[in-house]
Amino acid sequence: MHLPDLNVAKDRTKKENIYIDLNENYNKVFSNKKYFLRTYGCQMNVHDSEQIRHYLETLGLKSTDKIEEANIVVLNTCAIRENARDKVVGFLGKCKYLKKNHEDFKIILTGCMSEQPDFIELIQKKHPYVDVVIGTHNIHQLPKLLINNNPKQDIEVYSNSDEVIENIQYARDSKISAWVNIMFGCDKFCTYCIVPYTRGRERSRKPEEIIKEVKDLKKNGYKEVTLLGQNVNAYGKDIGEKFSDLLEKVAQTGIERIRFVTSHPWNFTDEMIDVIAKYKNIMPYIHLPIQSGSNEILKRMNRRYTKEEYLELFNKMKKKINNVSITTDIIVGFPGETDKDFQETLDVVRKCEFDGAYTFIFSPREGTPAAKMKDNISLKEKEKRLHELNEVVNYYANKSNQKLLNKTLDVLVTGVSDKDNNKLCGYTEGMKLVNISGPKDIIGSIVKIKITDAKSFSLDGEYVDER
Ligand code: SAH
Ligand code: SF4
Ligand code: F3S
After folding, report:
1. pLDDT of 69-91, one tens digit each?
2. ∠ at Cα 44 (38, 46), nearest 5°?
3. Distance (Å) from CA 362 to ligand 2 centroid
4. Which of 159, 294, 344, 452 is least enclosed, having the fewest CB within 10 Å?
5. What is the pLDDT averaged over residues 378-404?
6. Which ligand has its closest atom nearest to the C-alpha of 303?
7. Which residue has the higher pLDDT, 254 or 2?
8. CA 68 → CA 102, 121, 322, 334, 429, distances in Å?
9. 316 CB contacts (<8 Å, ≥6 apart)?
10. How far is residue 198's CA from residue 50's CA, in Å, rounded to a whole number?
11. How far apart, in Å, are the Cα atoms of 8 and each of 370, 439, 445?
12. Winning range, highest mean pLDDT, from 12-16, 73-77, 152-156
């Protein structure tokens, strides 16, 4: 068993590219069985779940959303916030009960929690009925572990692995829009964040492998790719490549829409802005987390930029990229955040008029520097700040949506609306969600939609038939 070491960011000494193919002997050995998969985390986890599903389905398992029917339950966990653990442990209680009455029932834990040593210890001591814990670096070992069928608890977690896995196959959720990992890990070590500990050091895939994947997706009818990395624009530093060059090469494949998340302001270069501005198929949408508007807090967060530098970058993007939408992430109640610091955050939101923002109350993560910082703000005060921030954020999100009213926009129609089954849904180039009145056969196409109503979180629109 390899236990992760929370405190050491190991140097990268060697790097291996591993190619994996599921041995055909693995095919269908679990026919007639069912799996239940729950994903808790970010896009990275959602995409990892597509990999897990590929393995399970290649082994012959069928998906079920009724856990009582399942033979294999996989929980793909997230560790970004403290309360997430209670939810997973609560769910494990249910699994334990089901397992008692079900002789053919396996419980698999993966995702970012499985990279936390104290979580592994908890599972070993208190939850021995969990069959497999598998880390975020070695999901490709899942088929092997399932076939081995070890009667004892298997813990396979490779922390800080240098491996870059290529040729991963996915059972993708969508046939229209696909996630494409371009790098793994994060080296930023923002003081509040657990991700560098759970996802390891930054490691980039080779550009030719990424391009091959995008070309294959295009050939298979995909309209959109979203390049994924915790720090997506830091791509290539470890292999002597540049994100701007990669973006350009992806644009030249001719795939209709390209997006990328999440960008770190510190790594955003003028070259990247120029490439985004140059290619029509690179969407004018940038998710650019600011986290705080206070320079003092930004410093203690180890974000490596000031409010002024962020604003300069933001304004450059707005100037150079036609109709760009910019969204952000913000944390309130970071240890020691004064009301003055918070006012700086509100100020930056007012100056940027973001198209949207994900807002969070600071959550101390054990093992990170911020968890040890003195935090003297009450939860009540933090909640008050969050509420106030959300009002300002929503005001500007609504304002930016109102500007689109009565306009006719290009929308990629992705499916049937969650809220109203008689409607379709899709996304504008600027990543605004649109609920659409139109015929079902436009699903999967980029079509003209006239915007008829604008709210804070979505737009309504009508299909403009040009056929
Ligand atoms: N790599 C991305 C996403 C990180 S997680 C990035 O750098 O932006 C997504 C968001 O969760 C972060 O941007 C941050 O706003 C929030 N977050 C991360 N750790 C947190 C913590 N300990 N408490 C509260 N919010 C946190
Ligand atoms: Fe976390 Fe910062 Fe890395 Fe984002 S850039 S994943 S917030 S450490
Ligand atoms: Fe959560 Fe891990 Fe993503 S901690 S946010 S699932 S990288």
Report:
1. 999 999 999 999 998 999 999 99
2. 30
3. 14
4. 452
5. 97
6. 2
7. 254
8. 9, 27, 51, 41, 41
9. 270, 273
10. 19
11. 16, 55, 48
12. 73-77
Range 425-434 average pLDDT: 98
Assign domain 408-463 one CATH number from 3.40.640.10, 3.30.70.2860, 3.40.50.300, 2.40.50.140. Answer: 2.40.50.140
The tokens for 306 are 């000031």
| Type of residue at 23 | N
Distance between Cα 335 and ligand 2 center (Å): 17
Any idea which architecture 2-156 has in CATH?
3-Layer(aba) Sandwich (3.40)
307-321: b (≥16 Cβ within 10 Å) or e: beebbebbeebeeeb
The answer to whether the peptide bond before residue 262 is cis (omega within 30 degrees of 0) is yes
Residue 4 clears pLDDT 60, i.e. is over it: no
Pocket of ligand 3 from Cβ distances under 6 Å = 41-42, 44-45, 78-80, 111-112, 194-195, 198-199
Pocket lining: 203 vs ligand 2, CB cutoff 6 Å:
no
Ligand nearest to the CA of 75: 3
pLDDT of residue 143: 87
pLDDT value for 160: 66
Ligand 2 pocket test: pick from 197, 198, 230, 233 the residue with the most ligand atoms within 8 Å of its Cβ.
230
Question: What phi, psi does 171 have (nearest 5°)?
Answer: -95, 95
The mean pLDDT of 302-316, rounded to a whole number, is 98
Single out the residue of 274, 266, 186 nearest to residue 231, CA to CA. Answer: 186
Decide: helix, strand or coil at residue 63: strand
Pick the residue whose CA is nearest to atom 4 on ligand 2.
Answer: 230
CATH number, span 177-402: 3.80.30.20
